[in-house]
From TrEMBL:
Protein name per Swiss-Prot or TrEMBL: Uncharacterized protein
Lineage start: Eukaryota, Metazoa, Spiralia, Lophotrochozoa, Platyhelminthes
Residue ranges of domain UDP-glucose/GDP-mannose dehydrogenase N-terminal in the record: 23-206
Organism: Macrostomum lignano
Keywords: Coiled coil, Membrane, Transmembrane, Transmembrane helix, Transport
GO CC annotations, alphabetized: membrane; nucleus
Amino acid sequence: RAAGMSTSGDAQATRPPHQPIRRICCIGAGYVGVPSSAVIASKCPDIDVTVVDISAAKVAAWNSDRHPLYEPGLSELISQTRGVNLHFSCDMIGPLEGADLVFICVNTPTKAYGLGQGKAADLTTLEAAARHIVRTASQPKIVVEKSTVPVRAAESICTILRANERPGVRHTVLSNPEFLAEGSAVQDLLRPDRVLIGGERTDEGQEAVQRLVSDGNPRVSQTLEELVRQDARLKEAIADLRCPEACRSQRDLASLESVGRECLREIRRLLRQLDGLLDAVEGDAERARVEREARNCQRSLQASQEAMREAALQRKQALQEAERVDLLRSDGADGGVGEVQGDDGVARRRVRQREETAAAAASHVTQSLLLLSNQLAEQVEASSETANRLLRSSEQLTETGEELKSMTGHISTAKRLLTRLSRRDFTDKVLIFLAFVFFFSTCAYIVKKRTIGVTV
């Protein structure tokens, strides 16, 4: 954990919805900035990434086919995304002004003079980048420090931004250090063993952390945003059902119920989609956050469904009561002029009103049956998906069992080979021992013969 910072896990579980990140500006076209930007552009096609640098020669090299540095897989990523959502530019103002998030990926060499010479990191370029951001940006930015820097470098950036910021423009600083190895930078970014994101211990800082974390998987972010939108639309329909001015007739009631049912179907579909995206979410903390959001949406769905049923029932009863009162009033009016119109006209009106009421009730029953049919279809679809998952899991277990059997056979073969080798080793030792005995016996025999011959 960076000093003065807190990791994304410290953020509160529930926060207001935020706007997704759509434009990123990376300051520094070097070893950290270009691979990071290329991977982001490749994995997030709806995010526009611009890498800026003051070196025109370096930018021109990145815009050509002769890149200034080599990393396995980097050229392929650049060729796929350059000109689409990855750009290289010497313009240090335009891309920065239009960006939602700014990466600082400048060089931080070892100090060549002064205090800490030969040991400490030279932060001159990093501080110059922070000053350029605060002078150029007229809108609040999320500033992410990714360069290789010592502890408390993010606090230095905060100090520079706070001392020079414009009125009403407050930037947020995050720390997202890189853990890249030369020769495997692209793979380290695609399959990181850890991701560290630190933010200021303020509501703005923690919201910025959540924005950066959630945009690691844009499909998940878009699904969560659509869930929020559909939930708001459903709550609006429920509020209209409870409002007499917004629902004055059976037609208005049917229309609002249709909107509510459509929202319920869409929310269920989005929840199933979110459940299918969980496997693609990287990191335990991010997966836990998405699962928590899904559970909250599920609970909200159940509460909204119950509230919609109650509101629709109450509004239906109120409309029926209003129709009954109108019918009684019309009966009274008809009785006053009965001598002119006669009993036949009153009877026909009553029959017509009853038929209209029965037709409205039949329409409501039909709508309810359609809703139940749709719900059953959705449940059947969900059951089918669950059965398919169980089938896939069963196949995987069968394959795992076959692999275990194969491994067991290999182990048994290896055990038999080891037994044979141990037996051969014992036989070799016995033969060597007998050879030594024969050798020493022969030597003793020769010595004995010579000794006897000398004596004679």
